[in-house]
Amino acid sequence: MKKNSAILVIPSFDFTILNSVEGQRTRSAGYYLYYPPLGLCSIAATLQAGGFGVSIFDGQFERNWPGCLLRKVEEESPALVGILTTTPALPVVKHLVSELRALRERTGAEFKIAAGGPHISCDPEIIPELGADFGVI
After folding, report:
1. Which is nearest to 71 in space by CA: 62, 83, 82, 61?
2. At residue 36, does pLDDT exceed 80?
3. pLDDT per residue over 9-29, tens digit each?
4. What are the DSSP E strand ranges found in the chain?
């Protein structure tokens, strides 16, 4: 385990689900809902200034989700995996946390799983339901 390293994650989520009309997804549906991860970038900069190695994993652009992230976590052995948690992505985050916990059990890795972001700040009581080790508000 790398004591001073973190992987910050933007979960993969199909925002067109939110804007579909009667289940029909259009090419432009949801396009405007994805914004650059400025919050994670700020957290990454703060961690780097404190001596941490940090990488941001953007599931919106990675293929083979969540397999590619799980491989990265297994290879890099970070101390922390932090997951951006928004309300529409709650099911995706819950599944990801479950996969990360299974990886941790299978490999004996010791990384911590943190959930943070808008939904956690509004509803911190959801942290145990998600299965994260802790939340950041």
Report:
1. 62
2. no
3. 999 876 666 655 565 655 555
4. 5-10, 53-58, 80-84, 112-116, 134-136
